[in-house]
Structures are given as structure tokens and as C-alpha cells.
Amino acid sequence: MNRMIHESVKAAIQAERERVQNEANCAEGPNIAPISQECTFANFMKCSPITFRGNEGAVGLIRWIEKTEMVFTVRKCTKANKVVFAAATFQDQALT
């Protein structure tokens, strides 16, 4: 039973990683290169980063981390902005 659960979680994580990789350009289309801009909060939010509520479990946490890192990469955010912008996606239990 534990092996089946482990394999199911592993498959879900892999599927989520593939989905995130397919969204690497913030849904602007595969043939359109994003215009390089300063990483502002408004630009960060245009990529629709997912929120983290703190009750999503391990798969939800990994999904949030990967999606948030992808947005940071696309928007070329500085380290200082990454902390502030990531914290802005926390909601509910993640804030306590």
C-alpha cells in the first residue's frame, strides 16, 4: 500500500513539474520571447503566481515552489525581490 502511495505521489509530482515547464513563458505563447523588464511587483503578478495557503500538503508545496521559481526566472527578479514577492503569495495558514 505504501509503495502504491509513493508511486502515485511521485507520478503527481512529475506531472506537475512537466506542467510547470510548459508554462515557462507565463502563457504568452511558445513563439513569443518575453520582453526584458525590471522585476516589479506588478510584472511578477502578471505571471499569475499561485498562492500558498499552508494546507496543500507536500505536492502543493512543491508546485508552489516550482511555479514561483519559474516566475522569478522569467521576470529576472533580484534576491531581495524574491523574498518579498514570494511572501506576498502566502494566504491563510501560511501567514501564521
SSE blueprint:
Elements: H1 2-22, H2 41-46, H3 57-75, H4 79-87
Notes on the structure:
The protein has one domain. It is built from 4 helices and no strands. One of its GO terms (molecular function) is RNA-directed DNA polymerase activity. This is Putative reverse transcriptase domain-containing protein.
Q: What's the overall geometry? A: flat
Strand composition percent: under 5%
What structural class results from the helix and strand content?
Answer: mainly alpha
Helix-strand topology string = HHHH
User: What is the mean pLDDT?
Assistant: 79
Number of strands: 0
Helical residue percent?
A: 55-70%
TL;DR of this structure?
The longest helix is centred in the first third of the chain and has 21 residues, at 2-22.
Core attributes:
single chain; 96 residues; mainly alpha; 4 helices; flat
